[in-house]
Amino acid sequence: MESNVSTITVSPDEMRECFTAILRKEGFSAERAVQCATIFTENSIDGVYTHGVNRFPRFMKYVRDGFVKKEAVPTLKHAFGGMEQWDGNMGPGPSNAVHASASAMRLAEKYGIGCVALSNTNHWMRAGNYAWTAAKKGFVFIAWTNTIANMPAWGAIDARVGNNPLVMALPYKDEAIVLDMAMSQYSLGHMEQVAMRNEVLPVNAGFDKEGKLTNDPSAILATRRLLPAGYWKGTGLALLLDILSAVLSGGLSTYDITKGKTKVEYGLSQIYIAIDISKFPNHSAIGAAVENIINDYHQSVPSDASQKITYPGERVLQTRNRNLANGIPVQKKVWDIIKGIEDGTNDLSAIPYT
Amino acid sequence: MESNVSTITVSPDEMRECFTAILRKEGFSAERAVQCATIFTENSIDGVYTHGVNRFPRFMKYVRDGFVKKEAVPTLKHAFGGMEQWDGNMGPGPSNAVHASASAMRLAEKYGIGCVALSNTNHWMRAGNYAWTAAKKGFVFIAWTNTIANMPAWGAIDARVGNNPLVMALPYKDEAIVLDMAMSQYSLGHMEQVAMRNEVLPVNAGFDKEGKLTNDPSAILATRRLLPAGYWKGTGLALLLDILSAVLSGGLSTYDITKGKTKVEYGLSQIYIAIDISKFPNHSAIGAAVENIINDYHQSVPSDASQKITYPGERVLQTRNRNLANGIPVQKKVWDIIKGIEDGTNDLSAIPYT
Fold it and tell me: What is the pTM of this model?
């Protein structure tokens, strides 16, 4: 099938500068504008376009409409040993996530393990960003967020569960192993991209309007009946991640985020756990232990001889290196929207909330 | 299809006393015999027969053959703040798990969050047991174990990943919400039970000898090509859980456990995390917050009107109450083996290692 997407290439510097300029014009401080612009650009460099360049217009929409408070900073609600509760005060998700990650690492340095529960924050875009950062600093990092209800429980028709992404990471060589997974088999963003290319997904990912499992992304986008990864397992994990993020932070649950609203997702609850492995007596042996595991994993015999079995984060690193060398592929229509926001000809009114 | 399994009913007291007698005769101390007998019985009461009564003969085999050291106790290797490393010294998995859970709760009481990494332990039988206990004491509890390699990575033919069960739990009313999930879509034990009833699984759970996905448990048991839950998602999560349990405990990885051995699984690595929510300022509001989430979740519209959407642990509680009232259903041939072990006519030589 022929792709109907025209793609251009944008250099990382050009993208970051464009995002920074837009954010500055919107009233972001210089420091915060660079911080947010850098995270959106890094996500694009890493190939997570759905939560990088493609998502930037929607982020701006949320800022403009006041769902994201551009200069809000987190405030400490409660501290007890290695555990802290912070209120994100509806600030930008990426800024709050950087703050919460740093706080969890600070606690881990002091207590071995640190946990930050963050309420009233916004979409962090991509958990992997904070996980790569923490892992490259030498920490084990586990974090998750809740979301608006976007997935039916296994066996149900109506969406009452979030797809609540979970990230787990640790240092590996000079880089990291980073698992960044939502609890739906595929994200809406990925299905939109595949639908745009008129392709189907390699496995079933949701239900069509007849209630049948399908791998056709257009049919699933029409019903919004996403399939939980592993059926009841993804459902259960999503439910527990939501409950824990809400009750440990004293913040909103998926139910609270969803009720009475129409598709606008804000006021999320998140958990950040860091473990400082430099404090471990076996610290110097960890690198070799992980390498043994990965070496064995890499020897997996693929069922399709042309496919290599890769560990979580391995292909991200390949994409990162390619995009740093060659520039970031961007859909021309997406970049046109962003340039329109930059030059003021696009007033964001046509940008959808979802 | 007709079931070819004949079932009897055994009272919880009778089962616990029988297990205790066998363990005492095997040389377990009175205290440890009661502890292990109680856990195997509780798992059976909760309906997890595969890791309760059905598994008891294999546990005895591992004890008799010296893989499980009946009187070993864990020793502290390293402590730093809320993080401790313990060596399980190859003791019984259930005894080590009770010790590690209690240690994580002790750390959580002091530091808000506590983490125990346990090396050189053995199969804990059922994570849910320790999770119910911790949650009913008021803790959030997260734990996982690695296993011998028993699952191919998604896209691979040969098993180089464990199915590494993960448990997450928290208090709910006077009981608990407990998610207890392995990273394979189904466990080998469950597939054996379904195969014995000549039934098929409701979803695909592995590959047949032609390399096709199938829901026929006999075909999957023949190839041992289990399907990771959520394909690459279950694979990635299993890999990260293995790496973290091995490196944080300084213990063996799935690769280490598997290499050079033939199907005998011992020397596992596990992680136990507890969070003491009684230390939270929003503690008194947590019960109502969880109830709101569960009430909404329960309102999910089922695609099959005869099915109710249940939260993790909800059906366990129903089974527990039924088995406490009516006795525990046990396959007659399993109970015959156990009675044979008790009266000494079964010398365990015919009990398989897997």
Answer: 0.97
Write the class of the CATH domain A72-184+228-288: alpha beta
Does the structure's ipTM exceed the value 0.95? yes
Outline where B252-313 has alpha helix (H).
254-258, 283-298
Active site residues of A: 51
A185 and B290 in contact by Cβ < 8 A? no
- From chain B, the residues in CB contact with A131 under 8 A are none
Q: How far is CA B223 from CA A282, A350, B203, in A?
A: 38, 54, 17
- Identify the DSSP state of A53: G
CATH architecture of B185-227: 2-Layer Sandwich (3.30)
Class of domain A1-65+314-354: mainly alpha
Q: Which of B51, B99, B123, B190 is catalytic?
A: B51
Instruction: Render pLDDT for A135-160 as a digit per residue (tens, 0 to 9).
Output: 999 999 999 999 999 999 999 999 99
Q: How confident is the model at residue B2 (pLDDT cuts 50, 70, 90)?
A: very low
Low-confidence ranges of chain A (pLDDT < 50): 1-2
Here the tokens at position A179 are 């698992």
Q: Report pLDDT for B240.
A: 98
Q: Would you call B190 a catalytic residue per the annotation? A: no
Per-residue pLDDT, B166: 98
* First-to-last C-alpha distance (Å) of chain A: 27
Provide, for chain B, the percentages of residues in helix, strand and coil under a 3-state DSSP scheme, each rounded to the nearest 5.
45, 20, 35
Q: How far is CA A83 from CA A8, B3, B139, in A?
A: 46, 52, 14
Phi/psi for B158 (5° steps) reads: -100, 145
* pLDDT for B4: 56
Pairing of strands B175-181, B166-172: antiparallel
